[in-house]
Each structure stands twice: as structure tokens, then as C-alpha cells.
Amino acid sequence: MRLVDRHGRRVGHSSFTAPDPARLVELHRAMLIGRRFNQQAGTLARQGRLAVYPSSTGQEAAQVGGVLALSDQDWLFPTYRDSVALVAHGVDPVRTLTLFRGDWHCGYDPHRYRCAPQCTPLATNASHAVGLTYAARRKGRDVAALAMMGDGATSEGDAHEAYNFAAVWNTPVVFLVQNNHWAISVPLHRQTAAPTLAHKAVGYGMKGYHVDGNDAAAVYAVVSHALAEARAGGGPAIVEAVTYRVDPHTNADAPQRYRDPAEVEHWKERDPLIRSERLIRDEGLLGDAEETERALAAFGAEADAIADTVRERLAGAEELDPRSLFTDVYATVPPLLEQERAVLADELREV
Amino acid sequence: MAAAPGVSMGEALNRALHDAIEQDPDVLVYGEDVGPLGGVFRITDGLIGEFGPERVFDSPLAEAGIVGTAIGMAMYGLRPVVEMQFDAFAYPAFEQVVSHLAKMRNRTRGAVALPVVLRVPYGGGIGGVEHHSDSSEAYYTHTPGLRVVTPGTPADAYSMLREAVECDDPVVFLEPKRRYWSRQEVDLPVRTEPMATPVVRRPGTDATLVTYGPMVETALEAAETAAAEGRSLEVVDVRQLAPLDDGVVTASVRRTGRAVVVHEASVFGGYGAELAARIGERCFHYLEAPVLRVGGLDVPYPPPKLEHHHLPDANRVLAAVDRLQWESEWTDDGEGRVRP
Fold first, then answer.
1. B7-184: which CATH architecture?
2. Chain B partners of A162 at a C-beta cutoff of 8 Å?
3. pLDDT tens sequence across A20-44
4. Prior bond of B203 cis (ω within 30°)
5. CB–CB of A335 and B247 under 8 A?
6. Domain ranges of chain A
7. ipTM of the complex
8. Closest residue of chain B to A104, computed from CA coordinates
């Protein structure tokens, strides 16, 4: 499913229509911020100021398109590669990097942002989304969830169990599978024999959507539709967003060992930002040529400013108190941990 | 036929679930076969009938999914009590338990609590075929963030399960399945000591048996036999295995000067190693003999016809007690020195 092709031209579709111009512009703006954020975080990782950064460059349309389809009360269940989704969801960009900076495992209050911690064990976040939406329904609240995972994660047993629970319980969850073609070094054809990952939905009695994941308009339209159906009791769905991981898995990866650079170039021509910018220019969504230049420049400046702020706020070292290691292991600190905290406090005094 | 006197552990657990569901609208019970069947051990018997399928229901047969969904529910304010049908059937859920259930509070700096109770019937002694009799406590106790508790009496089964449901920490509630039918005279509801505190089940002066779960009954039987032979054994029931508050254990062993740690699990790398090490660290100058461990054999759980060789019984406990260097106590070596 595609609504805008790689040249920025609209493609007609029988079931889906592209979002309105204001939304198309908003998608582009959020992707631009996401791209700059990816670049900035990658730089910080190369400089050693982040311990690691799993880039999602090239996947901004899938992440932004999915997240902007959420309503205010909905929850996001991201993975470690979804920092751009978190930023688009409204999480403080610096706090999305707490995990990668090594300051703590999660940098934000999940309840404040309606966003679960970035999940590292593949697909294990998906059943949490099922449980949370089940609980919300029991409490009479209209809450849907977007559970994110990659192509590799769909091979995990937890993905299977979450799909099945969601379908049996009819909970309003949309599983957004970003098929970026590579699970670190393992290509998709070694991951599955299914015709597409969206096909997997059939076995669970769910709907599956196969979407051009570099077309933000399409991702947004399909996820919006799937969320609305799920909310109305039509059941959960799998949305496979076909995209590409342009960067290495993380800054510690060596993609030249396993993939052809020509493949990367092929996908760079399908960059989600190129097509959204062309669409905006060709259709004059931001006004005449002069107005368009001004507005696009303003978006770029905004994205730069956010990236600059991230860099500046990460320049100083955060004050980390090792004694806080014991604070939130249990609801109250048990005697055993009180003893260890006292020992650690002695060690700190000796330093 | 008149009903047997007292309350069985299974009945106490059933009543605890009943009362917890009744008193807190956020409590719900689900798992495999816990609905109309009432669970394979009937611990959830009658609950779906009384509270309906909104509060008590069967889930798909998938333990990782059961625990994963319980985590999501707890994130949104429910208090799910989920059943793993047997010890070994809980292993598919291990990643959810270790990587999420145990860590969520910590990784969110206290912002997200997970008040989930994971009920696990554990241990052997019921003639179960393979994968139905594991003593899996050490897998859980080695994971910070989990509370791991196990009752040894019907009264504790009721009280500790109620406390587990009310607890804001995730609780792995290990039910000694061979003791489901053990009975005790007790009026329910009952509240015993807080689960975090070990209790002295039987006072004694000569040695301490430190135990929990299914072996509490065995240790008491051993103490009874020893008493008839003139030896006074104290029995300490640990109850909450993790996080451990070892004060009661330490005080007991310092008093008696000898200790045997008793559990059903294989000895090597078992929870008893932790107990023995702690007793050694805290009671060294009070000990008259090395701390001994009694447990199952270090073999995969045997088939039903051989399991009695694996399971520690009172005789195995008493044999260990006999090895606590009684004969050498303060003997004069003939050269004016008194030593063990």
C-alpha cells in the first residue's frame, strides 16, 4: 500500500486516502526533526558521549507516521530503535537518550508520556500493550496502543503470543512492524518464509496491512484506520511498514561484512524525506515557491535547534548518585539492600 | 463421610483468592484452566461462578503471554494474579519475569510498579511425570526485584497470598503442591506474621533446621522424632526467600550453635547454599559444627517410581543432624586441651 511514490507523486488507492495537507506538512516536519535527531545522536555516539545509538535513519516515515496516528490518550510501546517515534510522541528528546547515555535504563516517566520504556528484549513489549489496553477497557477508558517491533522480532515467540492474546481478547492494539530488512546482519529471507510479515496476521484472525514504510502518508493513513477499527471492536492488526535501515545496526556494527553498499544506495533513493518534500513543493502545500522555501527553512532551523539543544544538554555530566541504585528495586528498601547501601556508602567515603 | 477436620492448604489458597477478588475490584485471576475447571489442582474452584468471567478467566495456553499481559495490566493499575500450571511450565515466561517483571520499578525509578502475583505450584512428591515436579525457587531468588515467597502451612498460605496480592512488588508465590492436601485447624480469614519475616515453627535448643515450603512439614516430623530420642531441634520456616531478612535465622543458630538447611531442590547451587553461606558469615563464632545442607539429589527430577529416593525425608534430615559433630563436643584430648 502506497499513497505517495518515491518521486513525491500521489498514487490512487481504493481504500485509503492521504491525510489532509496540514497533516502531510506535519508529518514532514516531524520526520525532519527525527532525521536531525538521528544524525545528532549518531555523532554523539561516535564521540563517545553516548554508549551506543541504534540509528533509525531511513525509517522516519514508519516511526512518525505510526506515532502521529495515535490519539492523546493512547500508549506507545517502543523498542530501542524507536527514539524518533518517542520524540514525535512528545517525549523529551534528551530523555530518550538516557538509556544510550548509560545514565539509567529509562529516562522518562512512562505514565507522563503514555510511553513504555524503550524495550530491548525483542517483541517482549508487545504483550504489555495487550495487557495495558485490556486493563484500560476494564476501567472504562478508550485507550489504544501502538506496539512496535522489527522484522527480526516477528520470529520471536513473544510476538506470536502477543498477536494471539490481542486477537483472542480483541484488545485495541496495532502492531507496527518496521521491516527494515536486516536484523543486525541477518536478512529477511533468513528470518521468515512468509510472503510478507503482514501475512502472519491471517493465522491469528487479524487484519494485516503491507505498507510502503517510507511513505509517511501511507503509514499514517493505515495506522489511523487500523487504530480506529481496533477501538471500535474490530480487532487488533499488524501493519508491516516496509523500510530500510540505512545506517549500521549501531555505531559498533560493521555492515560491509554482510550487505552490498549498492543496496543501501537503492534505498537512499527511496528516502522518506525526499518524497515528502517533493510532494509539498509540487503541490504547493506550504504556499507559493517563496513561502515554501521560507517554511521549509524554518522547519530545518527548528530541527537544528532541537539537535543543538540535545547536544548542549548532554555536554555536562549528569549527577549520578550510586546510592540510588538501591532505592527502587522494591517498594521499600529491604534489610539486605540497606546493608549493601551502607557498605557502598563506606566505599564512597574512602574514595 | 464427615469432612476431614481443619482447612487444607488448597482450600486456604482458594479462600484467599476469593477474599482478595471480593475486596479489591482491581484484582483479577487468569491463567490456564483456572475458569470452569477451577485449575488442575482446583485452587480456583468456584471463583468464576461467584465472580464471573470478567474477574476470573481462562487465557490462551502461553505462559510468556500470560505474564506479559499481566505486566501491561499492572502498568494500568490492575492487580493480576496469574497461575503457572506447573513449575516447569513457567519456564516459557522466564524472560518476561526476569527482564520485565523484576525490573520495571527499577528501570523507571519507581514510576511504574508491577503488583503482579505469579502463582506457581512447585516441587514433587505427587507422582507427576517429568516436567511436573521441579523445585524452581533458585531461578527466581537469584533475580533482584522479585519477592519470592512460599508458605509451609495452610494458615500461612491464606495470609501470605493475601499479603502478596496487596503487595506493590511482583511476587512469585511458590505453592508446595504436595502439601495442598495438608490440613490445619485454623479459622479463616487469618493473618499470620508478615511474609518478609521468617518464623520459628518449633522451638528447640540443640540445633536449628532452616527450611521452607514443602519441607516445613518434613522438618517438623524430624524434630518430633528427634525429641523422642532426646534431641531438641528448632525449626525455622523462612517463608520469604527473597529478599531475605535473615535476622530470625541468625538468632536461632546463634542460640543452638548448629544448623541444617533443608530443601527439596537439588543441593548444588541451590537456595540452601545462600542460607548456609549467610549462617556461616553471621554465626561463625557460635557454630559447633559446619552448616550442613539436605536436599534432593543433583540429578534431573526422577520418574515417579524413583522420586522417593530424591525427596528428602525426616530420616535424611536426622542423618544430617547426626553428623553435626555431637560426639566430639568439648572433649579433653588428654594433653590438657579441650577442643572439638
1. 3-Layer(aba) Sandwich (3.40)
2. 65, 68
3. 999 999 999 999 999 999 999 999 9
4. no
5. yes
6. 21-320, 322-351
7. 0.97
8. B107
